[in-house]
């Protein structure tokens, strides 16, 4: 971190930590609260008592807008810090070992334009590779190979503004995967895509060796997961297999049992 | 965000001599040119009465150089267009206060610097620029400077300039779509909010990739 105050010993501890995929992802009694402003507003609870064990290769997180599913994802690579409780990803404590957690967990945002920091896809992938490849020539060749494998060989030099939504999403995904994280977290990855690009992205995701956790409103994508978590009003409403997707659809129509009827 | 609102342009891969010049030589040339543009030559060269001929010569030279490297009229216009309002205001001010020659000198100096920057950025990949900057700042490691961080900050700033110019245009377009006329001053507040949101998103994207 640029302006960090953490000790060198803590940083070394971060660097040394290696992920162990067999340990899965654990959220233990996690609360997330946002403080009020100057004591004028009440503290807001975003998540309350979230306890989850994510051990399957694919986990879908479902929930209405504002339910807290994106916050759950942000906890996984330390973009959000829990007010109480702990989060461990493949054995790495996300709060105590943040650098290792960021290396372990790749994060794909809903809007790839917010994620692509460099002017072109090639330069953005090269930026990611800075951490793993010191030689500039090899870095460039590796970035070109990765983008070509993603089907962006003829678009890698174009401005990110000139790419289609699908191409941006693939470029963002390539930049994140370039450093080979062991977990990939995606926040509504198909929301901005047309049907063709959505199908391409789903095909790409299906072939990845990483553990995937994604928040989505796309029930077809959710049904491809082995584990489905429903977040409602900042709490875990249900957790189960892909059969939960049909229940969730019903709850969206009829109301969440024992909750919305109150 | 309007892609065309790119003040300095982005790298365009081509195979010509300007693209092959090492980044260090281009950076040095940019530095020398900036010094030439800023010096008050009319004070030292007899017969040179006004401050604009030297910057004008630089601009013409840059356009010729650019043409040999594939940087053409579209690029120059792309550079001028976002800053056109500022140019008009500057020119108007100097005409009003009776200093048109000085105004021409100022405008051509700014234009020269912008054109030189455009050539550098259109013929050099940003990753190569970043490496050049990091090498340039290397000796400052001893005094606690982290060249990689500085290089990245500059890269992100360069990426943000066209975005922020586009934000103002987008805010005005959104207002126009609702039948509201919005001048630059009224567009400033939503533009500032959008700029802060952009900064926040960029920070999150950096953090998510372990680059914070």
From TrEMBL, chain B:
Q: Which Pfam families match?
A: CbiQ (PF02361)
Subcellular locations according to the entry = Membrane
Topology relative to the membrane: Multi-pass membrane protein
Single GO cellular component annotation? plasma membrane
Q: Which UniProt keywords apply?
A: Membrane, Transmembrane, Transmembrane helix
Q: Signal peptide location in the record?
A: none
Q: Where are the transmembrane segments?
A: 21-41, 53-73, 80-97
Say where the protein is mainly found.
membrane
This chain's protein is named Energy-coupling factor transporter transmembrane protein EcfT
The scientific name of the source species is Kocuria subflava
* Upper classification of the organism: Bacteria, Bacillati, Actinomycetota, Actinomycetes, Micrococcales
């Amino acid at each position: 971190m640029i302006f960090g105050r953490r000790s060198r010993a803590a940083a070394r501890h971060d660097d040394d930590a290696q992920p162990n995929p067999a340990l899965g992802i654990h959220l233990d009694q996690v609360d997330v609260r946002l403080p009020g402003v100057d004591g004028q507003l009440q503290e807001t609870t975003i998540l309350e008592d979230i306890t989850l064990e994510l051990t399957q290769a694919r986990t879908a997180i479902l929930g209405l807008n504002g339910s807290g599913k994106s916050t759950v994802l942000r906890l996984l690579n330390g973009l959000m810090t829990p007010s109480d409780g702990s989060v461990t990803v493949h054995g790495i404590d996300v709060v105590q070992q943040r650098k290792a957690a960021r290396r372990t967990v790749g994060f794909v945002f809903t809007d790839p334009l917010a994620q692509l920091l460099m002017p072109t896809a090639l330069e953005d992938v090269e930026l990611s590779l800075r951490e793993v490849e010191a030689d500039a020539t090899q870095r460039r060749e590796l970035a070109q190979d990765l983008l070509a494998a993603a089907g962006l060989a003829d678009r890698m030099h174009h401005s990110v503004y000139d790419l289609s939504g699908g191409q941006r999403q693939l470029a963002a995904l390539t930049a994140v995967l370039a450093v080979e994280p062991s977990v990939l977290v995606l926040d509504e990855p198909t929301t901005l895509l047309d049907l063709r690009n959505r199908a391409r992205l789903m095909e790409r995701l299906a072939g990845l060796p990483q553990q995937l956790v994604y928040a989505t409103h796309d029930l077809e994508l959710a049904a491809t997961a082995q584990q489905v978590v429903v977040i409602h009003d900042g709490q875990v409403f249900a957790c189960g297999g892909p059969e939960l997707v049909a229940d969730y659809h019903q709850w969206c129509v009829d109301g969440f049992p024992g909750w919305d009827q109150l | 965000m309007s892609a065309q609102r790119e003040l300095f342009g982005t790298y365009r891969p081509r195979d010509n001599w300007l693209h092959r010049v090492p980044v260090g030589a281009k950076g040095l040339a940019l530095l020398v040119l900036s010094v030439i543009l800023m010096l008050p030559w009319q004070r030292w060269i007899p017969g040179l009465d006004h401050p604009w001929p030297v910057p004008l010569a630089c601009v013409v030279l840059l356009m010729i150089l650019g043409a040999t490297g594939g940087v053409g009229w579209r690029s120059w216009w792309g550079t001028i267009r976002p800053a056109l309002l500022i140019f008009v205001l500057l020119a108007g001010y100097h005409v009003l206060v009776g200093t048109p020659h000085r105004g021409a000198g100022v405008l051509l100096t700014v234009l020269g610097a912008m054109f030189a920057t455009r050539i550098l950025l259109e013929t050099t990949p940003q990753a190569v620029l970043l490496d050049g900057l990091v090498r340039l700042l290397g000796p400052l490691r001893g005094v606690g400077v982290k060249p990689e961080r500085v290089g990245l900050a500059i890269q992100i700033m360069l990426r943000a300039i066209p975005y922020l110019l586009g934000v103002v245009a987008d805010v005005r377009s959104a207002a126009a779509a609702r039948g509201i006329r919005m001048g630059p001053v009224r567009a400033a507040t939503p533009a500032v909010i959008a700029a802060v949101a952009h900064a926040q998103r960029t920070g999150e994207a950096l953090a998510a990739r372990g680059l914070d």
